[in-house]
Design brief:
Helix content: 40-55%
Number of strands: 9
Strand order of the largest sheet: 1-9-8-7-2-6-5-3-4
Largest sheet: 9 strands, mixed
Distance between the termini: 22 Å
């Protein structure tokens, strides 16, 4: 049985409670009790405050102290936020980083695909594959182009050009894109998160001058930046070399390499965090990724880290219901963000929840779940 149908069956078992005489939460009340905060609808720069979700798991670090805007903090009222979010159809991500950092591979794993993305210009016109052939690999693409995978149309990606080469023009183009897309009044064109990829394959330049320039000069406003430390499996050879240098025999190395590899990944991640947290606009979160070249690679930690640093619950809901990495994340957020809130209100104020409304709010965290009003 599909997850959505199992959940709805559980709701039906609660239905007798909805008929009791009590102060019942109406549809309008529900939006107030489970507020959906979101971005401002004006063109003026804004910084949206909000609490991060629960602590992120191992290998994922959130940075709640990071400041990404100098604007005043405010939120929309819940009813305005609900109306606003109805106009947002897809979760939009800018992915950045050096050439060969594994960006396209990560997007394929996130969208559960082995195909190359379809590419569209800013006017939603598809760019034929023979025109774009090889450009993703070479980094010769336009940041305005939209990358979409047929396996998950709920995500839209943009890929920045390789500004790490030192081109001031490319850096300015990227910064202008981020600044404009963070606050545009065309809500379906706003970017909601930035994934910044730093590979472990070049330990001698873990954090480059170009990367430090981005985090010192590019104010992404309320759009959170998550650093993806990629290609962690590149530490395998280095782990073996270090163990042999320490005098271990080859038989012992085989048993100890996994532990040493993890230590090296943690050391690399710690160094990246140390360097970037000192910048003017540091990342909001960090996540270490390994084995992304495998088709069954797990993207759960990436989805959780991204959701945890989003300021607005409405955007968290959009991301969680779009991702296909883990049904467990959907359950976690449905319980933590919605069910627990209703339970606390019921205990504190002796309120009786309308089961149909609760059902709708819970199912909104799950993909492909239609709720009949």
């Amino acid at each position: 049985m599909a997850p959505g149908r199992r959940i709805k069956k559980w709701f039906e078992s609660l239905s007798p409670a909805s008929g009791r005489d009590s102060h019942r939460i109406s549809q309008g009340d529900a939006s107030d009790l489970v507020p959906v905060a979101t971005e401002a609808m004006g063109a003026a720069p804004s910084n949206l405050s909000g609490d991060a979700a629960s602590p992120v798991p191992a290998q994922v670090e959130a940075n709640p102290q990071a400041t990404t805007s100098s604007g005043s903090a405010y939120r929309l009222e819940s009813k305005m936020a609900n109306e606003y979010l109805k106009n947002i159809e897809r979760f939009r991500i800018l992915i950045m980083g050096r050439a060969n950092a594994g960006k396209t591979t990560i997007l394929q794993r996130v969208c559960n695909s082995t195909d190359e993305p379809e590419i569209f210009d800013g006017e939603e016109n598809k760019i034929e594959s023979d025109i774009m052939q090889g450009t993703l690999t070479r980094g010769c693409h336009d940041i305005e182009h939209e990358l979409v995978f047929r396996s998950n149309l709920g995500f839209v990606f943009h890929d920045s050009c390789g500004f790490e080469a030192g081109s001031a023009q490319e850096f300015d183009q990227m910064r202008n894109f981020v600044t404009e897309r963070a606050v545009t009044t065309r809500v379906n064109e706003r970017i909601h998160a930035i994934w910044f990829c730093i590979p472990m394959t070049e330990c001698h330049r873990t954090v480059t001058a170009a990367e430090q320039k981005f985090f010192n000069e590019c104010d992404t406003r309320h759009v959170p930046v998550i650093v993806l430390v990629t290609k962690g499996d590149a530490m395998y050879v280095e782990a073996i070399q270090e163990l042999e240098d320490e005098g271990f025999e080859i038989e012992e190395v085989t048993e100890m390499v996994a532990k040493k590899e993890g230590e090296l990944r943690d050391k690399c991640l710690g160094h990246v965090k140390h360097e970037l947290d000192r910048c003017k606009f540091p990342p909001k979160g960090y996540v270490s990724l390994q084995k992304m070249h495998q088709e069954d690679a797990d993207c759960t930690s990436l989805m959780e880290c991204t959701a945890n640093v989003l300021n607005e619950e409405g955007l968290q809901r959009l991301l969680i219901s779009t991702q296909q990495s883990s049904i467990g994340i959907c359950v976690k957020y449905a319980v933590d963000k919605t069910l627990r809130h209703y339970m606390e209100l019921g205990c504190e104020e002796n309120l009786q929840v309308d089961v149909k409304i609760l059902e709708g709010n819970l199912l909104s965290w799950f993909p492909n779940c239609e709720v009949n009003n």
